């Protein structure tokens, strides 16, 4: 009962946050700007969204193949179709309840492939750890290739935050913050060690260990080159879907690979904040595009366009997988039974 209540509260919180951010992005729009937003979405070339959706679908398929590679050291050989269905249903359930998809995709695959759920969760943790590393790399690439835009923006904001009224750099403030961070980290490490016997702290430690084990388990992967290829391919498809998406709207059609990296960076972070990125993703894209002199209304319209086609893809393919999964496995089991007979 307690778990159900916590899950419900989590769902309400993240959905509420998403709806609040949606309201926040539109609350100051004038009637003229609202019409401008509607016209921008109405005039978008939706045919050009199709290749962007195909790129995303290819990334999801590649993710299922990469997951299979992670299972090989555990002597699991699930069918590619079931693995792909499980991946898509993971995304689908994440739209309903944050983080539910991670558990559901392992549960679904375990049910139809007769594999232990706990070991599959270990591979999922490994996947998430790799994705975090990839996101960090994308962030560094974004800053490196656009040091004049993203770097200057970060430097300007840093100076605003740490400059005194007289215009001099506030060294004391920086040292206090750095000292505070060291103190917080040191205190956290001490508390985790001293109070590891307490339930929720023990779970935190288990989670940290799980992430570390997930990262280190990569060394047991048999096909490392294939694993690296799929990891690169997944993120390349994410990037290309954004790049191709620019052509669908005239105000952003001139933007290139640099802005695509920036949207990939901030959009990926926004997807973590709310379920399915609702509200947070549109806001992140809108604010990101202002760095490239795109008006906030056009930026918001493009944010809606990107979020919509990603979400529609997951909903449509996810629902398809949800209905077809039992039929596919029934037919598969019948063929296996006939084969044995």
Query: What is the total tally of β strands?
Result: 0
Rounded to an integer in angstroms, the radius of gyration calculated over CA atoms is 23 Å
Mean pLDDT: 79
Strand content: under 5%
Give a structural overview.
This protein is an all-alpha fold and 341 residues long. It has one domain (48-340). The protein has 13 helices and no strands. The chain has helices at 2-26, 31-42, 49-71, 80-96, 100-113, 117-145, 147-161, 171-194, 199-216, 224-245, 257-273, 280-289, 296-340. Helix 6 crosses helix 11. The longest helix is centred in the C-terminal third of the chain and has 45 residues, at 296-340. It is globular. The termini are far apart. The model has no long low-confidence stretch (mean pLDDT 79).
Question: Care to give the gist of this entry?
Answer:
The protein is mainly α.
What tags apply to this protein structure?
single chain; 341 residues; 79% helix
Question: How are the elements arranged and paired?
Answer:
Blueprint: H1 2-26, H2 31-42, H3 49-71, H4 80-96, H5 100-113, H6 117-145, H7 147-161, H8 171-194, H9 199-216, H10 224-245, H11 257-273, H12 280-289, H13 296-340
Helix pairs in contact: 2-13, 3-4, 3-10, 4-5, 4-13, 5-6, 6-7, 6-9, 6-11, 10-11, 11-12, 12-13
């Amino acid at each position: 009962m307690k778990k159900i209540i916590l899950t419900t509260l989590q769902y309400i919180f993240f959905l509420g946050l998403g709806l609040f951010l949606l309201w926040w992005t539109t609350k100051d729009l004038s009637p003229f700007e609202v019409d401008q937003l509607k016209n921008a979405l109405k005039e978008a070339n939706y045919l050009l969204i199709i290749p962007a959706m195909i790129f995303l679908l290819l990334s999801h398929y590649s993710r299922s193949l990469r997951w299979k590679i992670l299972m090989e050291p555990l002597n699991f050989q699930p069918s590619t179709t079931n693995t792909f269905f499980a991946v898509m249903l993971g995304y689908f359930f994440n739209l309903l309840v944050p983080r539910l998809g991670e558990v559901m995709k392992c549960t679904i695959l375990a049910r139809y492939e007769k594999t232990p759920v706990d070991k599959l969760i270990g591979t999922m943790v490994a996947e998430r750890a790799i994705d975090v590393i990839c996101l960090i790399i994308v962030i560094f690439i974004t800053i490196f290739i656009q040091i004049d835009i993203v770097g200057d923006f970060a430097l300007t904001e840093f100076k605003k935050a740490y400059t005194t009224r007289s215009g001099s750099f506030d060294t004391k403030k920086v040292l206090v913050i750095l000292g505070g961070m060291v103190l917080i980290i040191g205190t956290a490490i001490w508390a985790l060690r001293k109070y590891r016997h307490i339930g929720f702290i023990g779970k935190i430690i288990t989670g940290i260990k799980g992430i570390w084990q997930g990262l280190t388990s990569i060394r047991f992967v048999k096909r490392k080159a294939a694993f690296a290829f799929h990891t690169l391919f997944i993120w390349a498809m994410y990037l290309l879907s954004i790049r191709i998406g620019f052509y669908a709207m005239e105000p952003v059609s001139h933007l290139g690979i640099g802005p695509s990296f920036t949207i990939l960076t901030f959009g990926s972070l926004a997807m973590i904040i709310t379920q399915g990125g609702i509200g947070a993703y549109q806001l992140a894209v809108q604010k990101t595009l202002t760095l490239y002199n795109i008006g906030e209304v056009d930026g918001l319209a493009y944010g809606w366009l990107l979020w919509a086609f990603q979400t529609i893809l997951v909903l449509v393919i996810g629902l398809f997988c949800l209905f077809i999964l039992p039929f596919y496995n029934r037919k598969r089991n019948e063929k296996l039974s006939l084969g044995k007979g």
